[in-house]
Amino acid sequence: MAKESAFGLLKGLVLRKALAESGEEDRLAEKQHEKFYEKKASNMKQAIVLNTSLKMGKGKIAAQCSHASVQAFLETKESVRNEWLSIGMEKVVLKVSSDKELVELYQKAKRRKLPCALIRDAGHTQVPAGSITAVGIGPAKENEIDEITGNLKLL
């Protein structure tokens, strides 16, 4: 067993040295670097906005943010979903202090044809039934989301 491990290690070192001598290792690293920045250049994100006037506990906040994220994701075109998934699923969680503000954000996103979801609570635990708890917007291009949510503060 130890002999096989040592042989595998030696084989890997020899292969790496051959790649380095041929310059192939540098080309491979460069390609990986380019792919990372190509993906990053797409600048996509999802915004989740929470209604802080409801004074929800941490677990409730996490659940409502999750509902908003998943529902908005499901409203997104498959090609956009796949791209967002491939670049790390960037999200930002923001806050507003009223359900009126959440509705306005949701309507702005709808008018701009961005994937979005308005979340209303069932009322089984901490907040009254029908309370508007959160909005999910995107995934979409970062600048499109920022046009709607850029003035909001982080949660």
TL;DR?
The chain is of the alpha+beta class and 155 residues long.
Task: Give a verbal description of the structure.
The chain is an alpha+beta fold and 155 residues long. It folds into 2 domains: 38 residues; 112 residues, Bit1, CATH 3.40.1490. Helices cover 55% and strands 20% of the residues. It has 6 helices and 5 strands.
Query: H/E series, N to C?
Result: HHEHHEHEEHE
Separation of the first and last Cα atoms: 53 Å
CATH-defined fold name of the largest domain = Bit1
Order of strands across the biggest sheet?
Answer: 3-4-1-2-5
- Please report which band the strand proportion falls in: under 5%, 5-15%, 15-25%, 25-35%, 35-45% or over 45%: 15-25%
Please tally the β strands and state the result: 5
CATH architecture of the largest domain: 3-Layer(aba) Sandwich
User: How would you name the CATH homologous superfamily of the largest domain?
Assistant: Bit1
Mass-distribution shape: elongated
Overall average residue pLDDT: 85
Number of domains: 2
- CATH class of the largest domain, anyone? Alpha Beta
Largest sheet: 5 strands, mixed
Considering DSSP H and I runs of 4 or more, what fraction of the residues is helical? 55-70%
- Low-confidence segments, ≥5 residues, pLDDT <50? none
> How many H/I helical runs?
6
Structural class: alpha+beta
Rounded Rg:
23 Å
